[in-house]
Amino acid sequence: MKLCSTKMLPLIIAASLGLSACGGGGDSGSPSITPPSGGNNGPTWVQGQFASESSLINQCSANQTGSALTEKLWLRSWSNNTYLWYSEIEDRDPAPYSVADYFALLVTEELSDTGNKKDNFHFSMSTEEWDQLNQSGASVGYGINFKLDNGSQAGARKVTVTYNEPNSPASAANVTRGAVIVEIDGISVKDANDSASIDILNAGLFPSADGKQTTFTIRDLGASADREVTLTAQTIVSTPVQNTKTIQTANGKVGYLQFNSHIATAERGLFDALTSLSQENVDDLVIDLRYNGGGLVAMASQLGYMIAGKEATDNKTFEETSFSDKHPSINPITNQVLSPIPFIGETLGFNTSLLTGGTPLPTLDLKRVYVLTTSSTCSASEALMNGLRGVDIEVIQIGGTTCGKPYGFYPTPNCDTTYFTIQFKGVNEKGFGEYSDGFVPSTSPTLASEVQGCALTDDLNHALGDPDERLLSAALYYRDNQRCPAIAASVSRVSAANDFVDEGFMLKDDRKQTLWMNNRILSDMQGAQ
């Protein structure tokens, strides 16, 4: 198997990648743009005419090899060639817009069949930040993951800690799940009602540089009084696989695994976790995906294999992808013939410093799996559920409706920015992939996107992995009784981003926290079987 020697190596494993760092992104076959009159030999916009993206890539205004217009024209051609719904993009003159604003317009405005926005997953970030986050899970912060509650009324805004990262400023200060952030640098979270105050809250919650100190007033879970902690932002390396444990029950052993993101470093964690559970001879598995927004599809395939085993997955498709009608048989990014992604039974070496490729994966050989979900469960996490259902592994869903992203993209860099635009959709072995409104837990499923299970809200009053925590407790109850506990209740579907608005003042979403909700990377497995 030939690997591309670039920073993108962990993302795409293929005979040839086709990303800019590996030799260009492919041509659209459209005519070249006619240069403007007046002696300017640079490209210009002509409605309905598209230059090949390869003729425009990496011509950047910052290093004077190109211009902002060239960057925008590259985005336009790249989108026209690879965007899944390219025909629904309005072809606007890019001149009046900044590069970022123009990219935001290169998206469908159509609605889904159910009336929801068709594309909620269109964004960009600096290439440096993306490379760091994807390869090592590193980003600037305090090691706090938190839930932003929607404040539709004044004074209803709330920020609650969902978990912290080990060996982080948050863990050192014992800021743990269930703690409510009351004030940030003296500004009340729930009562802030002007732009200056909101800016202070955002700057505190979402630090952009190492060394920033922020004072938080928090109310710990179960505490009767607030306390004050000062945290210093630093580069945090996330631990995507946590809390692996075996729970002994009257009816056998149940494995539990908290899996937070399908990033390169997770391969080692999953390998070790499933090896441990296999050695424990667990009878069932509860996998906690409630905060897992996705990532590498090939890693989801590996996990599916480890859950189901060789016999159930042999010669079966984990996911088959398709692009727009421009590319019925060829992947426009890699220029390879489209072929299904199998269930992958060996390590791939996403991060070779942690785990090299070619090692057989451990298996549990289970016929069912319990999955804990919220609206933050997205993309590759949903692909895992869909892939297992495609080979008749029973998936029991406990929690909330997932985010609804049967789509994916190849992160594509240009001029120090990496862009993410929907390029393909996926289906399982049975040809199903219509879950754009999410997988819905139901006691009586009737639709293909409804999954047997229990609708429950997230429980922030117990630690993750605690058998008394609502979702895990419900999974254990369902296992013993084949029905939901009495506490099961309807869960309304909420925005995956969990932004909240209070009389026009909004706390922004954290790109680092919501990246995996908005992300799904295809690891093309051509030649890797």
Summarize the SSE layout with pairings.
Layout: H1 68-82, H2 99-105, E1 123-126, H3 127-136, E2 138-141, E3 144-149, E4 158-164, H4 169-172, E5 180-184, E6 187-188, H5 195-205, E7 213-219, E8 227-232, E9 234-237, E10 241-249, E11 252-259, H6 266-279, E12 284-288, E13 294-296, H7 297-308, H8 310-313, E14 317-322, E15 341-342, E16 346-348, E17 357-360, E18 368-373, H9 380-390, E19 394-399, E20 407-408, E21 412-414, E22 417-420, E23 424-427, E24 440-442, E25 450-455, H10 470-481, E26 500-502, E27 505-507, H11 511-514, E28 519-521
Parallel strand pairs: 11-12, 12-18, 13-28, 18-19, 19-25, 24-25
Antiparallel strand pairs: 1-22, 2-9, 3-4, 5-6, 5-7, 7-8, 10-11, 14-15, 14-23, 16-17, 20-23, 21-22, 26-27
Helix pairs in contact: 6-7, 7-9
Description:
GO terms for molecular function: endopeptidase activity; serine-type peptidase activity. This is PDZ/DHR/GLGF:Peptidase S41. It comes from Shewanella piezotolerans (strain WP3 / JCM 13877). One of its GO terms (cellular component) is outer membrane-bounded periplasmic space. InterPro entries: ClpP/crotonase-like_dom_sf (IPR029045), PDZ_sf (IPR036034), Tail-specific_protease (IPR005151). A hairpin with a 2-residue loop joins strand 26 and strand 27. Helix 6 runs parallel beside helix 7 and helix 7 runs parallel beside helix 9. The protein has 529 residues and is α+β, with helices and mostly antiparallel strands. The chain has 3 domains: 80 residues, no CATH class; 100 residues, PDZ domain (Pdz3 Domain); 239 residues, 2-enoyl-CoA Hydratase, Chain A, domain 1 (Alpha-Beta Complex), CATH 3.90.226.10. The strands form 9 sheets. The protein has a 7-stranded mixed beta sheet with strand order 10-11-12-18-19-25-24, with helices on both faces. The protein has a 4-stranded antiparallel beta sheet with strand order 6-5-7-8, with helices on one face. It has 11 helices and 28 strands. Helices cover 20% and strands 24% of the residues.
